[in-house]
TrEMBL record:
Domain of life: Bacteria
Keywords: ATP-binding, Cytoplasm, Kinase, Magnesium, Metal-binding, Nucleotide metabolism, Nucleotide-binding, Phosphoprotein, Transferase
Protein name: Nucleoside diphosphate kinase
Gene encoding the protein: ndk
PANTHER family: NUCLEOSIDE DIPHOSPHATE KINASE (PTHR11349)
Top-level class of the enzyme under EC nomenclature: transferase
Amino acid sequence: MERTLILLKPDAVQRDLVGEIISRLERKGLKLVGLKLMSLSSELLDEHYSHLVGRSFFPEVKSFMQRTPVVAICVEGYKCVDAVRLLAGVTNSREATPGTIRGEFAMSVQANLIHCSDSLETALVEVPRFFKSEELFEYNDTLQDYVYNSS
Ligand code: GDP
Ligand code: MG
């Protein structure tokens, strides 16, 4: 089982899309193991978006991500890192496939509603960056047997 980090960005919070997006994660069959609101510090954003530091749009991305608290989510599932990227759609919402979260609800590159880890290696760094171990839960999700039916 993999775990991946998801952030519902300030545009999702402001546009009342938090429930819609969490509902999509649940309906997909993903197991929620961590969930909270949090404000992102400048230092945390420098770390989280280190690949963008130095880009001309980085200050704008940073201030956008600090406009409201974000919803941090950790989900668990078999090969869930790639599955969640597919649910989110590509970075530029205007080019995102209809049916994906960005493709369905967004029109912007920056305000694209959701962050999700881009690989298992990234997820292994990002989950502990946003969640302390005591904020992540292990429990028996009785539907998992039906969701996966062994593979
Ligand atoms: P992601 O993994 O799909 O979220 O995309 P990246 O890791 O490449 O970029 C992180 C976030 O920075 C994106 O989700 C956007 O919110 C923002 N971003 C990326 N590229 C641009 C850009 O060209 N302009 C602006 N304003 N924001 C961008
Ligand atoms: Mg990324």
